[in-house]
Structure to design on (361 residues):
């Protein structure tokens, strides 16, 4: 009888809550305003011929490489960072290999690692979600073949200094070390200039977040040219679709749009963090376009908070089931006008919550 591989049979399924997302989208760390209007202009002018022919990735790949200050043979455009993670797992993980993550973190690392048949080593973050550098070193073995670090991390918003990641790559020479910089634009720190220090280091970037192009599915993976040749062999030549390829140069060209958006997000983040501080709500200071807050003590508290916000037209994300995040909710930040809607709703929900908690015996 036909049966999937064992790694697939035992794979947990990941169902992000995409259904019925009516309201202000502060639940998926997307751009709350949408993409640059220049991208929409390009979309409207897309000729039928562009859709009829198979997409050619390389010319756009050269433009993205130039923008990032790397050589074209150091970069692969991917179907979002998700595909970059998948390709790294497929390229470096044999069944039984060890793959290391620091939890809590982005869910897809574990899924693709498990799908490759690897043993996932989950190292818990240190106190206050700090990077557990010492513990990671202790967990390294000759079988460690992949280490994936989101930097800044999702859902905590914490940032590891670039030096620590370079040092980790040096200590684990037979492991691919991924610095997933999906939220780079909101923190400005990148390991990209240090990439050539270690041939096992990789950087991933996405156009899903600051650029507002999550639906187009496009990201970039950068690494040593020799390693990138193997990754290129693993990927489909048509992994990035023609619409995404047509739009990307316009998105890159409109850096004024990105600068303006990022500056509003940073202002919004400061406003939210200030409001949380005033309300006495515990949160973790963030370097990304979201903030993780302790909405209550239990997962029921977090679910009730999310529901109360949803009733006020605001979607936020329950992170209670993530390691060490019981009672936690993640709130994405966006435009000033969106924060103007967020803060009064938050205040109302928090004051109702205090009344309920105050009424508890
Ligand atoms: C850390 C991290 N990496 C990657 C992704 C996915 O990026 P993409 O849309 O490019 O696949 C996300 C999305 O939430 C993320 O938080």
């Amino acid at each position: 009888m036909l049966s999937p591989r064992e790694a697939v049979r035992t794979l947990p399924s990941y169902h992000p809550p995409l259904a019925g997302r009516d309201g202000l989208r502060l639940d998926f760390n997307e751009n709350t305003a949408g993409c640059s209007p220049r991208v929409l202009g390009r979309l409207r002018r897309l000729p039928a011929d562009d859709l009829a022919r198979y997409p050619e990735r390389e010319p756009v790949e050269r433009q993205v490489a130039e923008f990032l200050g790397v050589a074209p043979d150091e970069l692969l455009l991917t179907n979002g960072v998700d595909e970059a993670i998948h390709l790294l797992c497929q390229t470096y993980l044999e069944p039984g290999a060890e793959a290391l993550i620091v939890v809590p973190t982005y869910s897809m690392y574990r899924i693709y690692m498990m799908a490759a048949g690897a043993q996932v080593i989950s190292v818990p973050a240190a106190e206050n979600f700090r990077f557990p550098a010492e513990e990671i070193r202790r967990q390294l073995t000759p079988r460690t073949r992949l280490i994936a670090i989101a930097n800044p991390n999702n859902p905590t918003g914490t940032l590891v200094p670039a030096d620590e990641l370079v040092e980790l790559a040096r200590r684990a020479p037979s492991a691919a070390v991924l610095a997933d910089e999906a939220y780079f634009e909101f923190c400005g720190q990148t390991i990209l200039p240090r990439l050539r220090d270690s041939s096992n280091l990789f950087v991933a970037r996405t156009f899903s977040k600051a650029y507002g192009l999550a639906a187009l599915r496009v990201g970039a993976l950068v690494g040593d040219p020799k390693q990138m040749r193997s990754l290129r062999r693993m990927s489909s030549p048509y992994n990035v679709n023609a619409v995404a390829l047509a739009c990307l140069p316009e998105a890159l060209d409109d850096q004024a749009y990105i600068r303006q958006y990022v500056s509003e997000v940073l202002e919004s983040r400061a406003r939210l963090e200030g409001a949380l501080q005033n309300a006495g709500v515990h949160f973790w200071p963030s370097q990304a376009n979201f903030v993780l807050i302790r909405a209550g003590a239990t997962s029921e508290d977090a679910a009730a908070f999310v529901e109360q916000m949803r009733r006020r037209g605001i979607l936020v994300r329950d992170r209670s089931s993530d390691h060490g995040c019981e009672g936690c909710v993640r709130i994405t930040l966006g435009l000033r006008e969106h924060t103007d809607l967020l803060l009064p709703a938050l205040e109302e929900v928090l004051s109702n919550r205090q009344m309920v908690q105050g009424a508890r015996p």
